[in-house]
Amino acid sequence: MSTKEERERIELLQGTLDLLILRTLLLGPAHGHAIAKAIEFKSDEVLQVEQGSLYPALHRLIKRSWISVEKGTSENNRRAKFYRLTREGRKQLKVETSKWDKLAGAIARILRPAE
Amino acid sequence: MGRSKRMLDELGADIRDHIERETQDNIERGMTPEEARYAAVRKFGNVARVKEDTRDVWRIAWIEDLWQDIRYGLRMLLNSPGFTAVAVLTLALGIGANTAIFSLIDAVMLRSLPVEKPSELVVLRWSAHKAPRINGYMSSGDCTSNLRFGAANPSGCSFSEPMFREVRNANQFAGVAAFANSGPLSLTGNGPASMINGQLVSGDFFHTLGLKAAAGRVLELSDDSPTAAPVAVLNYGYWQSSFGAGRDAVGRTIELNGADFTIVGVVEQRFTGVTPGSDYDVWLPLAAGPRIGNPRMWDNREDKVTWWWLTILGRLKTETPMLQAQAAISGMFRNEMLHGAIPLFEAGGGMPGPPEPRGGGGPASRQVFVGGPPPAGARVVPTPTGGGLQGSVVVGGPMPTPVGGQGPARIQAPSAPTTQGRAPSDTATEPRTLSKPDDEPTITLVNAQTGLTGSRGRFENPLYVLMFAVGIILLIACSNVAGLMLARAAARHKEMALRLALGAGRMRIVRQLLTESLLLAATGGILGIVFALWGSHAIVSFVSNNQPRPLTFATGLDLRVLGFTVAVSLFTGILFGIAPAFRSVRVDVTPALKDGFSASTKISRGRARRFSISNALVVTQVALAIVVLVGAGLLMRTLQNLRSIDVGFDSHNLVIFGINPSLAGYKDAQVDSFYRDLQGRLAETPGVKSASYSMVPLLSGSLMATVFHWPGTPQDRQSESDVQEIGPNFFGTMQIPFVAGRNFNAPDYEIAASAFASEANRSAPPTVPTPVIVDQAFVAKFLGKENPLGKRFGQSDASQEGPASPGYEIVGVVRDTKYNDLRREISPIMYKPQSGFIGAAFEVRTAGDPQALVPLIRRTVAQINPNLPLRDVTTESQQIDRLLFQERLVARLSGFFGLLALALACIGLYGLLAYEVTRRTREIGIRSALGAQRSDVLRLVVKQGLLLAVVGAVAGIGVALGVTHYLKAMLYDVSAYDPITIVVVSGLLVLVALAACLIPARRATNVDPMVALRYE
Fold first, then answer.
1. Of B47, B137, B769, B773, which is least surrounded by CB within 10 A?
2. Most distant CA pair in chain A: distance in Å?
3. Measured between CB atoms, does B4 come within 8 Å of chain A?
4. Which of B847, B874, B900 is the last residue of a domain?
């Protein structure tokens, strides 16, 4: 079942991206490009996400009803689509964040046992 | 899915937007437009792949997950073919049994009438506090009626023809149709003479029902007039079987009861009769009634308001609500009943003729002849010596059995002439009406679908019982498969733990497992449909073989049955799948993974819990099986009791057939001499011991009763007895022994003949009492210790009702016999010498196999007159079988279902024990190694199995005692709590359970300790 393992590794990465999107939207609705920019900016451009992969993630979050979509216009009066965190999404963000903290903590302890 | 489509549609624009913005940003950072665009595209990545991935987000969840589940499920099921086969077969049996019985219920009770827009059709139903004063009443068995003499609140659906015309003229309906059984029709002009079934219908019958012709045309209003050329419309099936579906059948002339009819058409195939289960060969206009009926029998009823014989259907107008139409029709009816006077000639001359003794033939042809008007009705001829039927009722044919299967309903005659002492002049002074105001005659409109019950009533109860039984079987099948799934879930314990550990969602796994159970159930359902088709076909042909005419309940798959099966399969799949599925995911991941290969030492806590579920499932199965078995046992004992009843005469080696020479033109005295002639010739036929005839064949479901005045009782009191008219040597042929007195002799028959003639010709009344022979029950009821011989009764003085009558004189007493039915208590019967133009049933006592003599008997009849068809040629044993067909059907089916339940429960028990033995191989090995004997090991396994069986049996008996009383109405001479049945059934179950235990137990004893211990 090698395909299965592969998929699960991808899922893990996607999960991370999902978490970042949710976190970004916590500040307020944003359109796709803005989300990508925000993630890059916040991580001091460490996380160089391939911007395209944002879209499957956005759709996945919409499907799970963690974010919603609304249409509007951006600053310079261009057509834009805003993504907004839903109540469920907010809840999920908490869950995912605490999971991430645990994971990160655990990995940290393994990597630097002395501390 | 709409949301996903919208989202995906906009995806391209979204991506273009995104890249546009990124390009803009890059330009602001100082790149050239070309560079900026290039960088933006590169940073975005492969657009096609992004689109593909995004699309997958939506797609995977639905189709692919499902497809994956199904593929995976199929693979798992194919990996364990043994499990799959057992589970599918079990489910197929459960679902198949349910589908089969449901398809019968569907065909008998739920299928809509074979007409256009059946929901618009209503049947008229009258009710009143007291029976109306009428001279004749005939119900063709299309709907239930409870017209009884003296009983309060009678109701029914038969009306007079004048009433029908009024309803039609009232213009409350979009269409009105009336119909009635035509009685038996002797057909000549198309091959050898044969008896067929016909229905008299009003000219607008087919148009009201919205039926078209398959060939030629249907009846028109213009056909239904006394002056119109007599025409007939054929049943499609009859056209095919008897006319070879030839187009040239239309236009041909056939002879029915000696009158010519031209076939004008064939009605469309779906229609065999409007009432469920009815099947008529031919339809004739109402106006043809006098042509095919015996004039005396017909009695000019077409113009009489006192002869009620037509069932009336109305098609509601779309603009007139049902209640409004009902109010109008009911008001009209009430007005007619209270204010329409009965014409004098009707009140006087009303003499409903004698019925066909063989009843109507078909299940929908129950005929009730009620002779004699209520007390005020004047009679010309006194009852006792009348043509056999005044003041009598014949309940013909195989009858709709009332709830509880009590056998044919007894309908009592309104009244016979009494010496009530009203002066004849009363008739002239007092205007007589059909009802009195406080009788409150009303009409209700009943939806035809529910109102036209037909023979449905006879099947309702057995079908519900059977549906209950198969419902239980489905439960057993479910818990059986649930047990199997649980055992398998234990085996897949590690797999589940692994999948959970790898991050699969619990719901995802539950869904996967439910998909597996639904796959099982769906496969079982498909196979079940095959079983059901086969099964319901077998049941219908069994039912049909036991009817005088084939029944036309078309069973088969319609959408309702398919829907039922799909629903049952889904329900089943979820029912047996859900518990194991949730059990499977309630896995503590770590210990399960850490555990060794066979998962034998750890998780003992989890297993204890699981086994309590498995044990409970097996106990449930056994208990449910006991419930079905006890029910089946009671029904089988009922059948056995009915079969071993002493009927009072020798029912073996007896051929019975009906014949009616008056249909072939024999008149008056010719009929009697025909009977004597035939009797003599039959008795001389080689292989025949003796022959006789009677008006009603015994144990055919038909019965006649009469009322009379018993001396010493109050003048206005009517006593009642069953009555039978018999030919010479009836008692000898039937082997009914005499208790006292003598048989009828030739002078007795002369008295009967002259009495009949005087009535028929309205000539001088007889002066000599009619000799009668009575049974012991009659003596016990009326005479007690008094010497019955020479006793006279039933005399009446001349009155408005008729001239003086000399009554009856008892000349002999015979042993008690059953009359119409096995279940009915033995009742007082008086036998009279038969005379007159009525039909008769011949009884032929044979030396050997009665069936073998039938061709010879036919030849003997043909020697006298080749144009005389025989009706219902059968043997008494077949007749009894036919009478008991419902009991036989139910006993056979419930017995089959009982065994099925037993088998399924024992398979469940076996499966559990077999699994146990496999699981405990190591334990058994250790025990053997430590010195346990084979018998110890055997006991270990058998003990568990028997314990489960006994606990289940006890629980099952408890449940059975709670529900068997619902069967009470169907039982005969056996208590609903019959201890013998319960003991036998429990014994049977424990024995079979023991056998089911022994197989795995023996396997356990063969465990080689070395192999078992090395295994891990």
1. B47
2. 55
3. yes
4. B847
Q: Which among A8, A37, A51, A75 is the top mutation candidate for probing chain B, defined by the most B β-carbons within 10 Å of its own β-carbon?
A: A51
Is the domain of B375 the same as that of B464?
Answer: no
What chain B residue is nearest to A40 in terms of C-alpha separation? B43
Radius of gyration of chain A (CA): 16
Give B805's DSSP letter. Answer: B
Amino acid B922 reads R
Model ipTM value:
0.82
CATH number of residue A63's parent domain: 1.10.10.10
Which among B17, B46, B56 is the nearest to A52, CB-wise? B46
CB B1013 within 8 Å of CB B927: no
**pTM flag (> 0.95):** no
Say whether B43 and A51 touch across the interface (CB within 8 A).
yes
**Boundary (domain end) residue, out of B31, B59, B87:** B59
Q: Residue B98 carries which DSSP code?
A: H
Give the model's pLDDT for residue B428.
Answer: 41
- Residue B203, domain member (yes or no): yes
Residue B915 Cα, gap to closest chain A Cα (Å) = 30
Q: Collect all residues with Cβ–Cβ distance below 8 Å to B766 and sequence separation of at least 6.
A: B385, B751, B754, B755, B758, B805, B806
Whether B832 and B902 map to the same domain: the answer is: no
- Torsion angle of alpha carbons B927, B929, B932, B936, nearest 10°? 60
**Tokens describing residue B892:** 């056979």
Structurally, chain B folds into a number of domains equal to 4
Q: Model confidence over B286-296: pLDDT tens digits?
A: 999 888 876 66
Contact A55 B58 (CB under 8 A): no
Query: Quick one: DSSP state of residue B791?
Result: -
Residue range(s) defining the domain that contains residue B324: 118-416+428-451
Contacts of A80 in chain B (CB under 8 A): 17
- Tell me, yes or no, if B5 comes closer than 8 A to chain A by beta carbon: no
Can you tell me which residue has the tokens 């109050």?
B714
The residue type of B370 is V
Shared domain for B627 and B661, answered yes or no, is no
Number of separate domains in chain A: 1
Q: Which residue of A has its CA nearest to B57?
A: A60
Is the same domain home to B306 and B355?
yes
What single-letter DSSP state applies at residue B293? Answer: S
Q: Which residues pair with B187 in a beta bridge?
A: B194, B256
Please report the DSSP string for B593-609 in residue order.
Answer: HHS-TT--SS-HHHHHH
The answer to whether residue B476 sits within a structural domain is: yes
Domain that holds residue A70: 2-111
Q: Are residues B827 and B942 in the same domain?
A: no
The verdict on B765 and B711 lying in the same domain is yes
Please report how the helices B2-28 and B47-59 are oriented relative to each other, as an axis angle in degrees rounded to 10.
150
Positions of chain B with pLDDT lower than 70, given as ranges: 1-3, 60-64, 147-151, 294-297, 344-431, 455, 502-505, 546-557, 587-611, 760, 762, 799-803, 837-838, 1015-1016
User: How close A54 comes to chain B (CA, Å)?
Assistant: 9
> Shortest CB distance from A51 goes to which of B4, B45, B503?
B45
Q: For residue B878, give every residue at least 6 positions away whose Cβ sits within 8 Å of its Cβ, in sequence order, or none.
A: none
Best mutation target among A33, A41, A62 (most B Cβ atoms within 10 Å) is: A33
Residues B287-301 as b/e (b if ≥16 CB within 10 A, e otherwise) read bbbbbbbbebbbbeb
What span, in angstroms and rounded, lies between the C-alpha atoms of B955 and B659?
Answer: 57
